[in-house]
Amino acid sequence: MIDYKDFIKNSDRYFNAYRKRGGLALEKTAKSTLKKIQETQKPNLLTELEKYQSEINQANKQITALDPVNKKKKIIELKKLSDKISKLKTAARQQHEIITKSIKNLPNILQADVPPGIDASSNKVLRKVGDKPKIQNPKDYLALSEKLEIIDIERAAKVSGSRFGYIKAEAALLEFALIQYSFSKLIKQGFTPIVPPVIINQEFMEGMGYLAQGGEEEVYHLVKDNQYLVGTAEQSVGPYFANELILEKDLPKKFIAFSSCFRREAGSHGKDTKGILRVHQFDKLEMFVFCKPEDSESQHQKLLKFGEELVKGLGLPYQVVQLCAGDLGFPSSKTYDIECWMPGQNQGKGEYRETHSTSNTTDFQARALNIRFKAKDGKNCHLHMINGTAFAIGRILIAILENYQQPNGDILIPGALQPFMHGISKITKK
């Protein structure tokens, strides 16, 4: 949630950001929201509250020196003032609720270096890392895994419908190897492992910014309980400190979370309908950082660096992409993706596919969730929140299978994962 006071004070900055992000339509929405806020703020209830509170403070100082008759009159006056203050507080609370509701459909504003553009075609490739493997007639992961009997799409479709898969045998071992590999690297960097709930209350899904602008269509809603299945561990870890005050000396707080994730993929009709690239259920390792505002950019770069190091450690070629304004998620102010090379995709021609994403949401989520820290000067400030993929298991399995395939269909296990594979260094046909 944006800071509505800053929105009023620096509205042109917000209008420019929203024009870049969502065109004239979003800018128009922002202008109409500003007008509603300004109308709602009339009269200025806080000014009236301060005036009456000042009068009560003055009266309390005078009352001890009054004689019994005048003291009784003053007490009656104070009672009337207290009643006025009580009514004003109720009105001010209602006013704040109206303002809060009106700004919930406005996304985060952009950081200055976010590239312009309205969709993914304008995303900017920052660098390419690693040499693509030289594979004659590469197969895609579906053909490879079917032969090796390590991913079963057909039986998953029978049991659960489309966009599901059974991960089994060596593929299942690879999943847990990836988890241990990630922990072995990230715990040394100060991350605390955490397994969060996969069901969260509506207020927190909303506070994280995932129900606005059509987001409701992408999540699984448990209607009877008014709860949601998470689409990423970020949605469950983000509210961990909701309505809490953290001491500055205890920041940053860093977590590496593992969870199953659930997505309806309502906006992906016809895309990657077969296999495990785009599914309704998958497992994921997610990095998450709570930090001071002045540290959020450096922490964001660190998460990107950690993501790259994990991929490099597996020997996978990849490219780093910065998302343009129009392709950013609702709560993000800046996002980088890592796209791994998958030689079996695109009918064997190969292509880069997104496997990682890291976003700086600044104070947008923290403000909605009321997560603050007490600074050294005694002030309570909203902290910043940054998230980043360590591994989306299904997608990184695809990258491993396709990049490490052998001419006979065997799959070599990346060296970094072999210590966690119970002596297995190659996946072969049973």
Number of DSSP strand runs:
18
The proportion of residues in beta strands is: 15-25%
Profile the largest sheet. 8 strands, mixed
The top-level CATH class of the largest domain is Alpha Beta
Structural class: alpha+beta
Q: Which topology of the largest domain does CATH recognise?
A: BirA Bifunctional Protein, domain 2
Overall 3D geometry?
elongated
CATH level 4 superfamily of the largest domain: Bira Bifunctional Protein, Domain 2
Stretches where pLDDT is under 50 for at least 5 consecutive residues are none
Strand order of the largest sheet: 1-11-12-13-16-10-9-4
Question: Span from first to last CA?
Answer: 54 Å
Quick check: average pLDDT? 92
Helix amount, in percent? 25-40%
CATH architecture of the largest domain: 2-Layer Sandwich
Order of SSEs, N→C? HHHHEHEHEHEEHEEHEEEHEEEHEEEHEE
Radius of gyration: 27 Å
- Number of folding domains? 2
**Tally of DSSP helical segments:** 12
